[in-house]
Amino acid sequence: MMGTGGTIASRQTEHGLAPGLKPEDILNYIPAVKEVCEVHTIQVCNLDSTNVTPEHWKMMVKAVQDNYYDYDGFVICHGTDTLAYTAAALSYMIQDSAKPIVITGAQKPINMDVTDAKTNLLDSFIYAADQESQNVNIVFDGKVIVGTRAKKERAKSYNAFSSINFPYPAVIQDGMLIRYIPEIPCRERVKFYYDMKESVCVLKLIPGMKPEILSSLFQQYDCLVIESFGVGGIPDTMLPVFYEEMEKWSGKGKFVVMTTQVANEGSNMTVYEVGKRVKQDFNLIEAYDMTLEATITKLMWLMGMGDMDYEKIRDLFYTTVNHDILFTKRIEAEKGR
Question: Is the distance from CB of 37 to CB of 124 less than 8 angstroms?
């Protein structure tokens, strides 16, 4: 079990909740774990997940890699605010793992009388101890969520996380693991990645947005993720500047990925004129059914691989990793056209 801080490890201070419990302290609150598996603990970091950065992801990956062949599974205790980002990032940084890497947390500290932490943590060990479990997943509120498919949709409730555009592969009820989707055994050797390039910015479109912001963002970042409306498009008021910037930076290592502000069902820029024309003119990468968290962290991982031309990045972005994208048939059809 790896401690990284978060609400699950927090204590009340005069300035509010702050991480203070060590992993072994947390473990003492779930004595029933002894009937599930033998647990060793390590403190990777101890911070509010608001402060998590790609550097902390690298620390978690290193802790898993250093101990990979000594243990059957790993449980990472993490704050809920950026837990979905960490789960997505680790899905790209640790691939083809035949051993489970489970990420969990809580909405209330484990030392409180009324808390979800004890159940979430014990459920995580139940899932991690099962021989069929593998790769990166979240266990929270009795549900197993694929690492690339989670989104925090509730700020206070115990059912904080939802699985976006993908079913729950399993649930844990009364200490029993129930699988809905059988795992396909990993056939390749586990791979660890550390290089994550952080030059990614998200622009959430709003009605009436000043188009000049595009020039500033293109100047400062290598990749711009645009959260458009509905199934995707660029407002007419922003088109002149968008075309100018795209043509200016074409072939210079900068690119745009289009996604949607709507959580469920994904984008499809070919539906409306406001999206279809732009996509065809620039062969834009589109996130389709991917979560924003997976889109961002996948781009960080891809750019961390070093210099690649646009087509190579596009092909790798559309290569499925840990169930992160489903619309591969549509993508191949578009590529053929």
Answer: no
Alpha carbon separation from 85 to 78, 117, 129, 238, 286 (Å, rounded):
11, 20, 24, 29, 19
Angle at the Cα of 129 (from 183 to 72), degrees rounded to 5?
Answer: 90
172 phi, psi to nearest 5 deg: -120, 120
- How many residues would you count in the chain? 337
Contact 137, 166 (CB under 8 A): no
Rounded distance, CA 236 to CA 203, Å?
16
* Structural contact between residues 288 and 256, judged by C-beta atoms closer than 8 angstroms: no
Sequence-ordered list of residues with C-beta below 8 angstroms from that of 317, at least 6 positions apart, any chain: 257, 285, 298, 299, 302
Q: Rounded to two decimals, what is the model's pTM?
A: 0.94
Q: What is the dihedral of CA 37, 42, 47, 48, to 10 degrees?
A: -10
DSSP three-state, residue 209 = coil
- Supply the residues annotated as catalytic: 7
CA-to-CA separations, 244 to 149, 247, 277, in angstroms, rounded: 34, 5, 15
- Under a CB-based contact definition with an 8 Å cutoff, are residues 64 and 43 in contact? no
Residues 6+ apart with CB under 8 A from 328: 318, 320
Taking only the tens of pLDDT, the chain with its 337 residues reads: 999 999 999 887 778 877 779 999 999 999 999 999 999 999 999 999 999 999 999 999 999 999 999 999 999 999 999 999 999 999 999 999 999 999 999 999 999 999 999 999 999 999 999 999 999 999 999 999 999 999 999 999 999 999 999 999 999 999 999 999 999 899 899 999 999 999 999 999 999 999 999 999 999 999 999 999 999 999 999 999 999 999 998 888 899 999 999 999 999 988 877 888 999 888 899 999 999 999 999 999 999 998 888 999 999 999 999 999 997 655 555 555 4
The residue type at 150: A
Farthest CA pair distance, the chain: 64
